Amino acid sequence: MPDALYLDLLDFSLYSSLSAAPDRLETLIRKGFDGWIVLDEVQRVPELLNEVHRLIESKKLRFLLTGSSARSLKRKGVNLLAGRALRYTMHPLTVQEIGANFNLAHALQFGMLPTAVTHEDPKKYLESYVQTYLREEVLQEGLSRNVGTFTRFLEIASFSQGNLVNYSEIGRELGVNRISVANNFEILDDLLLSIRISPFTQRAKRKMVAHQKFYFFDAGIYKTIRPVGPLDSPEESDGAALETLFLQSLCAINDYYELGYTIYFWRTASGTEVDFILYGPRGLHAFEIKRSSTVQNKALKGLRDFHEDYPEAKLHFVFGGKNKEYHGDIQAIPFEQALRELPQLLG
């Protein structure tokens, strides 16, 4: 939007001026301006939303509001422009956007944030990104009283990547109560740092688990936060990174193509599991993600059990091999190929 009026609330002078008097916003817009007005990091001055509302109604102006945290807006109960604004999520990049330059090994290690894809030192960039969130969002917004405890919480949460969330267990490790742990997970949600998915229980024929599964929203963020030492198994963290990369791609494709799926997982009380279930007006899909380069029969058990209960489901086994394979009703697809074909698989 090269012709837009761009107002960056990370600019301290602008932030100070509009914080003191939100009605000054109108004085920054020349008379007769009919282009887009971009307010970046709008959550820093939540009171501006009332002024935006007024200018939409009285002046018919067009605003694009961006932000990396919903916590300030929710906490202060401000005007969220219901019925007057459309909400869009900007996800990390997708294979479709990167095209021929996509590198799977790089994506698994450093994720798909735009700067992480292009930066000459993505490791340093991601470390700075995480620290910036801790400093600017957690400390300045007063979201946590003890940033040291919150930093430790992030590390412990990284071991829950792709697993069921157990507040009590994490609380015992942190030395805090489960309510504090739940609040910290809510902070991650509000900072748009996490994805939590619920178990698929529609028409359930078996006893299912009740807990949600947790993921940091980007594989690179997860790998940056996750502590690694000589006692850590690379296979464990790499497997979670593979799931994360696939999930963030599912979320992006679902949103950008407006496919209307809700993303779940399936896990019985006995432990049989399918990583991702997509359910919506376009159908029912089950995805199992594995690092292995071969399709082993025991790895297909979750999909087969799911198919017994939901015979209408399309079954996808995404693995580290080089060629597509077909095992009864299950289509096995190499990981990168599955990422590239997601719009067609889901659409």
Residue share in helix: 40-55%
Strand order of the largest sheet: 4-6-5-7-8-9-10-12-11
Average per-residue pLDDT, rounded, comes to 91
Largest pleated sheet: 9 strands, mixed
SSE succession: EHEHEHHHHHHEHHEEHHEEEHEEEH
Number of domains: 2
Structure summary, number of beta strands = 12
Please count the helical segments: 14
- Low-pLDDT parts are none
In angstroms, what separates the terminal alpha carbons? 30 Å
Percent in strands: 15-25%
Shape: globular
Rg over C-alpha atoms, rounded to the nearest angstrom: 22 Å
Task: Tell me the structural class.
Answer: alpha/beta
Report on this model:
The mean pLDDT is 91. The strands form two sheets. This protein has a nine-stranded mixed β-sheet with strand order 4-6-5-7-8-9-10-12-11, with helices on both faces. Strands 1-2-3 form a three-stranded parallel β-sheet, with no helix packed on it. Helix 7 crosses helix 11 (219-225), helix 9 (167-174) packs across helix 10 and helix 11 (219-225) runs antiparallel to helix 12 (234-256). The chain is α/β, with parallel strands linked by helices. The chain is globular, with a radius of gyration of 22 Å. The protein folds into two domains: 5-76, Rossmann fold; 95-346, no CATH class. It starts with a strand and ends with a helix. Helix content is 42%, strand content 18%.
